[in-house]
Design brief:
alpha+beta, binds flavin-adenine dinucleotide, 4-stranded mixed β-sheet, Uridine Diphospho-n-acetylenolpyruvylglucosamine Reductase, domain 3, 18 strands, single chain, 306 residues, Uridine Diphospho-n-acetylenolpyruvylglucosamine Reductase, domain 2
């Protein structure tokens, strides 16, 4: 971390308001599924909404960047790291409040925790998302999904802090959920979500969850760190199939490799820097564009790159 006046002010704020809730120069490799990424100046686990808003107001005034990270399952963080304040809601934003078949859930809960809670409480609607590593906030921001199941399908309303740092609630219709997209949630901090589920037997939910997890393990290279599918599905077919047709499956650059099990994944074989993964991303985009005229759009989010 650079010893700038802005960073000193942030440090003082954190010591006063959030002692024990922040880390300095924290390697993002410890917080991304890829196990890649240099240090964030600060990694903060806000205690509540007020401290979160006050911190964001201070950062805005000091012109310091903020970035929310969830499980880091869809992030490629640069080797240089992130200059600014990374925020993580997993410690304090964890409510689950049931109102009939409707739930109010904190953004810091993981999908796995939520799906298991729903199973025990006989509520269906999320089991199709089993096996997707995510916090609820990250899942909403990405409209995470598999096949016909997308988290946006069950969302009623999202409570967030908007770009002007005002807390407000936004209806699902105004979010405009689409394939791996939630336009109304970008540039916001998602705090919690209200979702509508339905009654379902526990065994039915458990069977569905286990079937999804087994299917994933058979198709995906889960033995290596990754970010899941690197690219969104283009309208011309599946990214993985195009990459395989281009002859790139199994291509290695340094310690990053286009998976030989699922060509839509780029895996970290161990100690790969972000630059190796980025090289393969660009290589795939160029090759697939040249051979098939298909522009592949990354699903993975880049953090700390210019
Ligand atoms: C093995 C593997 C399999 C995967 N399979 C799938 C799959 O089948 N389907 C799928 O959709 N995805 C899949 N993914 C990708 C990933 O799991 C999803 O994108 C997931 O939603 C990321 O959640 P996260 O909490 O890790 O978010 P992160 O990766 O930490 O962040 C993703 C984005 O969400 C934003 N964000 C996170 N929390 C908040 C918040 N509270 N408020 C505002 N913005 C926030 C971040 O700023 C970032 O822009 C897979 C990943 C892996 C590693």
């Amino acid at each position: 971390m650079k010893e700038t006046p802005a960073n000193k002010s942030i440090f003082r704020f954190l010591q006063e308001r959030l002692p024990g809730y922040f880390l300095v120069d924290e390697p993002l490799s410890r917080h991304t599924w890829y196990r890649i990424g240099g240090p964030a100046d600060f990694l903060v686990y806000p205690k509540d909404e007020d401290s979160l808003i006050d911190l964001c107001v201070l950062c805005k005034r000091l012109d310091v960047n903020t970035y929310v990270i969830g499980k880091g399952a869809n992030l490629l963080a640069s080797d240089r790291g992130f200059e600014g304040v990374a925020l993580n809601l997993e410690r304090s934003f964890r409510c689950i409040c049931r109102e009939g078949e409707s739930l109010r859930v904190g953004a810091g809960l993981t999908l796995e925790e939520l799906i298991l809670w729903c199973e025990r409480n006989q509520l269906g609607g999320l089991e199709g998302l089993s096996g997707i590593p995510a916090t609820l906030g990250g899942a909403l921001c990405m409209n995470a999904g598999a096949g016909a199941s997308e988290i946006g399908n069950v969302v009623n309303e999202v409570k967030l802090i908007d770009a002007q740092l005002q807390p407000r609630a936004v209806d699902a219709e105004r979010i405009g959920f689409g394939y791996r997209a939630a336009p109304g949630l970008q540039e916001t901090i998602i705090l919690e979500c209200r979702m509508n589920l339905h009654s379902e037997h526990e065994e039915v939910l458990r069977d569905a969850r286990l079937a999804r997890i087994t299917e994933r393990a058979s198709k995906q290279p889960l033995e290596f760190p990754s970010c899941g599918s690197v690219f969104k599905r283009p309208k011309e077919g599946y990214a993985g199939q195009l990459i395989e047709k281009a002859g790139l499956k199994g291509l290695r650059h340094g310690n990053a490799m286009i998976s030989d099990k699922h060509a839509g994944f780029i895996v970290n074989l161990g100690g790969a820097p972000a630059a190796d993964v980025l090289f393969l991303i660009r290589k795939i985009q160029q090759t697939v564009s040249t051979l098939f005229g298909v522009p592949l759009e990354p699903e993975v989010k880049l953090v700390g790159f210019d």
